[in-house]
Each structure stands twice: as structure tokens, then as C-alpha cells.
């Protein structure tokens, strides 16, 4: 049977298929002010174009600019946001997971884009998510240059959603941080996490389910409700790390730097991610007694009887970023981090693997990187 395009047609419409384009338009209107607030003088055009543009003529002042890019999501932490009906913090998690990966090579962010997939567009909910993304973008100086909200009825439940994002940054070729700069004797400087960040939530959620705890349960050792702790946003390190580079390793054109590498502690935990920025033949000597693991991690361990080894290979345990620096720059690095509001401490030292006798759990070859290793040993502070 044929249908016509006239008013009163009984044919199938996009709306009857589950896609509400008017709701999408309302979501855009609600988020427009938040997105506009991230725009820097380098942005060309406004919100709503098919593509975002940024003026990069300033890169002509670079000796040899390299573009750095990364993409990521938030993982199953979104399930906590959905369960609590709190959607304005997930955006910071997204920005942190993406932008703090590109600062690891020393790159300054130029732009960020986001993507939200949902079963049904609820304009206010989408606007909340984007408001969180935009606020975090403004904090790291990266314009939210583009985005997409896609409605997927039949593929996702009506109230389900997921978020993803990508960022691009720039770094001088002779200022790139990485394993090739690291040498024996370097100090490992830890920068504190704000909590669980955005990794390991499949484990965390399974533990909470197993324990039968509700998200609104008040937990004395946390000083707040469980759900509020689990939704604590991922700490943003970009501005602090760029500040450390400027203060500790100012660009004098020589390419020499006192900061040698950065490691963003995400999925896989401390040892696995740190080993990715150490060269073959070197080992990071990390003493567990160097810091006290925050209460939320021990709570997860105790509730689920999670082995320490599994906990270490899944969660950050209180360390969100590690700077590998010349030992003479250790104090200045910690001071710069603290000046940015992030507690820092000496985590350990880099050694030649030859002649080094490991005394703990050794991790190497994480995420396909053929590099150095990390020996994490000792006992955590009580």
C-alpha cells in the first residue's frame, strides 16, 4: 500500500520510528550557551555549523609543530549517573580521559569534540551532559568545537546513553615527552587522583551489587553517600601539567627538558601505565608505603574481597598522573603541582634493570608497549 506525503497520512514517520528531531533541536538550544562559553579567540564561526573551525596560524611560530590526538569514553560510570539521575558531572570525566592523554606527550589542547548516543533525546538531560563537558573544556582551555547527539531507538533503551569524545593538541617536536627522555636516576612524582576517576567501574559496580549496598547509603569513612563518591569527577591534570612544564622545563629552544615523561593512570592501574613511558632496560621502583590509599579503594577491596593484585591492575589507588623528572627537578615539580591544587609526592625512582633485584610485583609490556618495567613493592600505609 502506498502512502502520500500529504497531511493526515497514516504512513510511518521518523517520529513514529522513535526519533524526535524537535527534541534534538531543543537540546541544542539548551546547550548553546554552555558550548559558546568554551570558545576562544582562535575559534572561527559559531555553534551549529557542519564543522567547527579553529585558526591555527599561530602554529607558524612553532619550530616544528606536531599534532596530538586522542579519543575515549567514560565507560560504565555512566550507569551510576543514570541510576542517580545526575548527568552534569560525566562530562568532566570525558574531558579528563581524553585531554589528559594528550598532555602526556606535552601537548597543549587546541579543540575537543563530543558524541552522545541515546535511546531517546531528553533535551534537559543532554544539556546537562554537555554542560559538564563544556565546563571542563573551559577549565583546560580547549573549545568544545563540535559534537553530535544521536538518537538510537530500538538499539538502546529509552533512558540509556553513552558518551565519547576526541581532542587534538599541539606540541613542539623537540619538546615531546616520552620514554626516550627517561634515564636511570629520574624521580617518579605522583599527582593525587580525586577518587576512582573513570576506570574499573565494571568491577566497582559488581562489588556494590554483591554487597547489596544502595547508592544513597551514607558511608562514614567516605563522609558522604556512596553514590556521590562514585560520581566524583575525574581530576583534570592538563593545566597543572602544562604549568609544570612551563615552570620546571621552560622552552629555551634547546630541546633539553627536566621533565622527561608523564603517565596518565587510567585503565590497567599505576604499574601498567607507568611502564608504558619507561624505555627498555629501565625499571620504575615504586614503594607502596609512599602514600596512603584513599578510603574508597579499600572499601571496594573489603566489600568484594578483591585481591590487592587485581585492585592494583584495575584502579588508580589514589595516583592519577605520574611525572618522570630529573631528580634535581623533583621539588620544583611537586611545588608546581601543589600550586595548581593537586597534592604531589615522591613515588619512587628509575633504575637500570641490569643488576636491579625486583622485590615485588613486576609489570612490563602493558597495552602492547615494548618498554621498561615497574616493580611495585612494600605495604600500603595503614
Automatic annotation (TrEMBL):
Catalytic activity annotation: 2-formamido-N(1)-(5-O-phospho-beta-D-ribosyl)acetamidine + ATP = 5-amino-1-(5-phospho-beta-D-ribosyl)imidazole + ADP + phosphate + H(+)
InterPro entries in alphabetical order: PurM-like_C_dom, PurM-like_C_sf, PurM-like_N, PurM-like_N_sf, PurM_cligase
Annotated metabolic or biological route of this protein: Purine metabolism; IMP biosynthesis via de novo pathway; 5-amino-1-(5-phospho-D-ribosyl)imidazole from N(2)-formyl-N(1)-(5-phospho-D-ribosyl)glycinamide: step 2/2
GO biological process assignments: 'de novo' IMP biosynthetic process; adenine biosynthetic process
This protein's UniProt keywords: ATP-binding, Cytoplasm, Ligase, Nucleotide-binding, Purine biosynthesis
Domain PurM-like N-terminal: 67-171
GO molecular function: ATP binding; phosphoribosylamine-glycine ligase activity; phosphoribosylformylglycinamidine cyclo-ligase activity
Any one annotated GO CC term: cytosol
Classification via HAMAP family: AIRS (MF_00741)
Family under the similarity heading: Belongs to the AIR synthase family.
Name of the protein in its database record: Phosphoribosylformylglycinamidine cyclo-ligase
Lineage: Bacteria, Bacillati, Actinomycetota, Actinomycetes, Actinomycetales
Amino acid at each position: 500500500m502506498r502512502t502520500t506525503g500529504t497531511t493526515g497520512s497514516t504512513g510511518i514517520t521518523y517520529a513514529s520510528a522513535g526519533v524526535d528531531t524537535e527534541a534534538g533541536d531543543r537540546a541544542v538550544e539548551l546547550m548553546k550557551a554552555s558550548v559558546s562559553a568554551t570558545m576562544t579567540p582562535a575559534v572561527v564561526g559559531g555553534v551549529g555549523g557542519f564543522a567547527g573551525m579553529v585558526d591555527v596560524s599561530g602554529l607558524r611560530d612553532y619550530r616544528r609543530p606536531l599534532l596530538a590526538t586522542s579519543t575515549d569514553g567514560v565507560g560504565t560510570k555512566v550507569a551510576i549517573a543514570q541510576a542517580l539521575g545526575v548527568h552534569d558531572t560525566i562530562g568532566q570525566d570525558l574531558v579528563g580521559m581524553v585531554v589528559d592523554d594528550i598532555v602526556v606527550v606535552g601537548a597543549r589542547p587546541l579543540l575537543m569534540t563530543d558524541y552522545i548516543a541515546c535511546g531517546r533525546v531528553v533535551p534537559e538531560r543532554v544539556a546537562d551532559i554537555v554542560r559538564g563537558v563544556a565546563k571542563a573544556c573551559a577549565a583546560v582551555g580547549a573549545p568544545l568545537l563540535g559534537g553530535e547527539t544521536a538518537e538510537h531507538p530500538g538499539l538502546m533503551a529509552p533512558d540509556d546513553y553513552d558518551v565519547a569524545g576526541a581532542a587534538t593538541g599541539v606540541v613542539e617536536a623537540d619538546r615531546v615527552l616520552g620514554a626516550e627522555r627517561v634515564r636511570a636516576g629520574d624521580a617518579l612524582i605522583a599527582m593525587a587522583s580525586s577518587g576512582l576517576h573513570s576506570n574499573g567501574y565494571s568491577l566497582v559496580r559488581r562489588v556494590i551489587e554483591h554487597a547489596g549496598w544502595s547508592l544513597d547509603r551514607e558511608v562514614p569513612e567516605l563522609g558522604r553517600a556512596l553514590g556521590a563518591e562514585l560520581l566524583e569527577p575525574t581530576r583534570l591534570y592538563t593545566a597543572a601539567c602544562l604549568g609544570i612544564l612551563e615552570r620546571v622545563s621552560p622552552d629555551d629552544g634547546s630541546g633539553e627538558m627536566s621533565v622527561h615523561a608523564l603517565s596518565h593512570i587510567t585503565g590497567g592501574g599505576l604499574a601498567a601505565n607507568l611502564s608504558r613511558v619507561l624505555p627498555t632496560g629501565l625499571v620504575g621502583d615504586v614503594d607502596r608505603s609512599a602514600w596512603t590509599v584513599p578510603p574508597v579503594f579499600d572499601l571496594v577491596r573489603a566489600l568484594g574481597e578483591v585481591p590487592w593484585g587485581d585492585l592494583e591492575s584495575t584502579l588508580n589507588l589514589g595516583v592519577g598522573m605520574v611525572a618522570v623528572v630529573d631528580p634535581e627537578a623533583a621539588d620544583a615539580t611537586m611545588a608546581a603541582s601543589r600550586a595548581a591544587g593537586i597534592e604531589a609526592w615522591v613515588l619512587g625512582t628509575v633504575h637500570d634493570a641490569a643488576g636491579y633485584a625486583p622485590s615485588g610485583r613486576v609489570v612490563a609490556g602493558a597495552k602492547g608497549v615494548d618498554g621498561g618495567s615497574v616493580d611495585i613493592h612494600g605495604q600500603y600505609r595503614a
